[in-house]
């Protein structure tokens, strides 16, 4: 599967997440679980006994799941918190072998609030569970992309021939750049701290100006990392793109020994959709991330 095909499938999957609610989301979850975990058992409501407050379980591991897919989770947190406690108590009464519990929720990539998270932590402690937590849309996406290609396409549909398609309007790089450009500036209390990468800056012959730009870009790394944590496929493809550009420049300009500031500006130029400050500063934030992780530029030998 090519990078473009994965990008298209990811968009198709996320569209499916945004559109599914209630039983449709539960069916999506159980389909993916059934293909990824051979011992997963789906529980369907059956006559007067219903589903006994369990939507699926893995018996030999003692893992039980309950699914909740409201239209808008942000408007349903009061109901969500009450539902977690109530439904779990009903579950534990009817299924005494619960060792781990996951509350599967279609948060539509919006995340869950702290109070709901604390409710599950309390259940874990009170009932001495091995694991107890949320299983969100992002978790389901990660599981989805571990499946075989034919299963993936059977779930979201077959993609057209990429070579005959018009180029996707939203590329991996542009999506992340757009996220960074939409971040608002917030006040920072206390002393401003930069990553500890001075040795790497010196080792790679970067002058003060590129170093200061990397430091400036690093100030939004926390939000970028949080964003990429919930978009693991996006994070993987972004890393591949940046390292690909870096390695391509090094290979193509090997005879000229391009390095230092020249290498910095060449990466920035190639990765910026437009050669204007807002786009370039967003790219510099991305460069700062992979500079810190040593995906781009050379890591100093230990002890230097």
Describe the protein:
By secondary structure, this protein is of the alpha/beta class. The chain has two domains: 3-156, Restriction Endonuclease; 172-292, no CATH class. Helix content is 54%, strand content 8%. The chain has helices spanning 3-19, 22-36, 77-94, 114-126, 137-144, 149-156, 172-181, 198-203, 208-217, 221-229, 232-252, 260-271, 277-292; strands at residues 40-42, 56-58, 63-68, 100-105, 131-135. The protein has a five-stranded mixed sheet, with helices on both faces. A hairpin with a 4-residue loop joins β2 (56-58) and β3. α12 (260-271) crosses α13. The longest helix has 21 residues, at 232-252. Mean pLDDT is 83; it is low at 47-51 and 164-170.
Tag the structure with descriptive keywords.
single chain; 304 residues; alpha/beta; Restriction Endonuclease; 2 domains; five-stranded mixed sheet; 13 helices; 54% helix
Mass-distribution shape? elongated
What's the overall average pLDDT, rounded?
83
Which CATH class of the largest domain is shown? Alpha Beta
Radius of gyration using CA atoms only: 23 Å
As for the CATH topology of the largest domain, it is: Restriction Endonuclease
Side by side, the strands of the main sheet go 1-2-3-4-5
% residues in beta strands: 5-15%
Give the distance, in angstroms, between the N- and C-terminal Cα atoms: 42 Å
Number of domains: 2
How large is the count of helical segments? 13
Topology order in helix (H) and strand (E) letters = HHEEEHEHEHHHHHHHHH
CATH architecture group name of the largest domain: 3-Layer(aba) Sandwich
Query: Residue share in helices?
Result: 40-55%
Number of strands: 5
Q: Structural class per helix/strand content?
A: alpha/beta
Largest sheet: 5 strands, mixed
Query: Which spans of ≥5 residues are poorly predicted at pLDDT below 50?
Result: 47-51, 164-170
